[in-house]
Amino acid sequence: MPSGYASTRHPLASQLIARARQIGGKLRAQQDQSDVRGCYSDEIHRELLEGGFYRILQPRMFNGGGGDCETYIRVIFELSRGHPGSGWCYALASSHALVLGAHFAEEVQRELFGSAGDFRAAFAAGPVGIPTFERRDGGYRVSGLWAFASGIPVSTHFLGGAFIPGVNGAPAPVAFVVSRSSVEVLPDWGGDAAMGMQASGSNSVRLNGVFIPDRHIIPSPVGLLSTDSLPEGTPGTRLHGEGVFLGIIFGWFSCEFGAIFTGAARAALEEYERMLRAKPMLFDPHRARMHDPELQRIFGEALCRADAAEALTLSATRLYTEQCDRWMNERQPITAADTLRVWGTAREGCRAACECVEMLFHSAGASGAKSGDRLQRYFRDVQMYRIHFQSQAVTPMLRAQLQFGTEVPLPFRTPTAPLVPH
To answer: Are 93 and 75 spatial neighbours (Cβ–Cβ below 8 Å)?
Structure first.
């Protein structure tokens, strides 16, 4: 944390960040067990819960921090530095308070946040196969499977995305929320279930005839790129008076990934430096590898990439909050180009972080490839971003299409009609 940093939003920002750094040290010591388990320990969960870390993005009305995005990002830096997979689990369970606080009606927010403000929700944007939505009086009875519900082991709720018949019978993209107690969490994560991010808690979730009332279903915010369809704001901006509760999450999610992988890059640098100080040079066993000019160059370049990743992530975060604040204070629209600028900036931060870890791993020698080696873990973890949708070329493609005025793909068009029949 740079000297002089102080949040203008959360009164306990400095304490939260310092405490997150301490918890990160515990996460580092528990990496092996957390990977096998598929998420961090109950001990860590209690510390995060009792310390208010899950409430940073929640509205003040519900005992939260009011949506302090920068403090939240800095907390993710520290937790992910201790263990990237655990940072992913934390972030994807706690961040979706913004969705509830932005897009759901006041009565639903009061119901789900509750008096204590205890709302944690994994979010899977789309189902596996085609779920069933059977219309019932006042809602739907839903069955289906949603994979990669990251953070579900520590969640109180589940947010899922799907298509249901909308106005005139056309498929409409929606998001729904259900309590975790009403869904089945499958034991399909942790250990060797995936190459990396083994502690991210990315289990699959199955709904078996779960009734979801209409008030718990909203038009999907996933493809929301602009304020074009929000001329009067959202239930959240009217209720909480904070621009961040516009809930334009498309670019924001990439900031979260930037924080996770910046943490991974810092963790990899620490492990690599330990190795350079401890191991002898290959052809000069009386001197440590930190005296090798080529390894010095690699370490220095990797350090620059980690610095760039952190700077880009913070820049994207501040850009996002500035856009939200300008809408709130001046009603300056947020355009699709604005949102993609946030996403693109954070995406470059993620790429820099991945390059940092990869160049360190590639030069560490064969011992770094052994099972259980921390550098190997960080390398595997960043590969999970390389194959993730957020990393793909759709961002620059969309930016170019907007610049040239060509057709934007259907999933990113602004909905113009009500999506859920009542």
So the answer is: no
pLDDT for residue 421: 42
pLDDT in tens, 166-217: 767 788 899 999 999 999 999 999 999 999 999 999 999 999 999 999 999 9
Tokens of 393: 């070329």
- Contact, 161 vs 124, CB < 8 A? yes
3-state secondary structure the chain: CCCCCCCCCCCCHHHHHHHHHHHHHHHHHCHHHHHHHCCCCHHHHHHHHHCCHHHCCCCHHHCCCCCCHHHHHHHHHHHHHHCHHHHHHHHHHHCCHHHHHHHCCHHHHHHHHCCCCCCCEEEECCCEEEEEEEEECCEEEEEEEECCCCCHHHCCEEEEEEEEECHHHCEEEEEEEEEHHHCEECCCCCHHHCCCCCCCCCCCEEEEEEEEEHHHEEECCCCCCCCCCCCCCCHHHHHHCCHHHHCCHHHHHHHHHHHHHHHHHHHHHHHHHHHHHHCECCCCCCCEHHHCHHHHHHHHHHHHHHHHHHHHHHHHHHHHHHHHHHHHHHCCCCCHHHHHHHHHHHHHHHHHHHHHHHHHHHCCCHHHHCCCCHHHHHHHHHHHHHCCHHHCCHHHHHHHHHHHCCCCCHHHCCCCCCCCCC
User: In the block, which residue shows the tokens 């918890």?
Assistant: 23
Q: pLDDT (tens digit, 9 = 90+) per residue, 79-111?
A: 999 999 999 999 999 999 999 999 999 999 999
